[in-house]
Write a structure and sequence with these properties.
Elements (H helix, E strand, L loop, with lengths): L2 H5 L1 E4 L1 H6 E11 L3 H8 L3 E2 L4 E5 L2 E5 L2 E2 L16 E4 L2 H14 L2 E10 L2 E11 L2 H24 L2
Antiparallel strand pairs: 1-8, 2-7, 2-9, 3-6, 4-5, 5-7, 8-9
Length: 155
């Protein structure tokens, strides 16, 4: 992930890293209509509770919300419509095989622009249990405390 991709992020799914172990990530294109692209450029998107499915060897994004474009008219898009993700067949087959073998799911992590094209970062994820989430929170708190002490020590 280059710095330019980091800066052009439209939206991130921050809840994904809290609820899932992300094993692998794949960059996919996304098929959009005109008003969706304009809404994305304004940052009017939400990936919370969204997921990807494979149907007939094609991948789709479900429950991803891209709000109406404010200056749109009757041709405005449906905010919750199912959007097609653009991947090679071999990539889709590989992800499908991993999902069926190990019980993973596909979660969108980020939407961003690369050279004017909207991209979605899809994560192959496995759900966390409650104790896993607590362990993650403890690790973050201890790391934050260590960083705080080191910062005070270096002054």
């Amino acid at each position: 992930m280059t710095k330019k991709q980091e800066d052009s992020a439209v939206t991130t799914n921050r809840k994904a890293h809290h609820d899932y172990f992300i094993e692998e990530t794949v960059e996919a294109g996304i098929a959009l209509v005109g008003t969706e692209v304009k809404s994305l450029r304004l940052g009017l998107a939400n990936l919370t509770d969204s997921y990807a499915i494979v149907k007939n060897e094609e991948m789709f994004l479900l429950n991803g919300t891209i709000s109406h474009y404010p200056q749109g008219n009757l041709a405005n898009h449906d905010p919750l419509r199912t959007r097609k993700l653009l991947l090679h067949k071999e990539e889709i087959r590989k992800l499908t095989w991993k999902m069926t073998q190990k019980g993973f799911t596909l979660i969108p992590l980020k939407i961003y622009f690369v050279r004017g094209k909207a991209k979605v970062l899809i994560g192959l994820a496995k759900g966390k249990k409650a104790f896993d989430k607590r362990d993650t929170i403890k690790e973050k708190e201890s790391k934050r405390e260590i960083d705080r002490v080191m910062k005070d020590r270096n002054r």
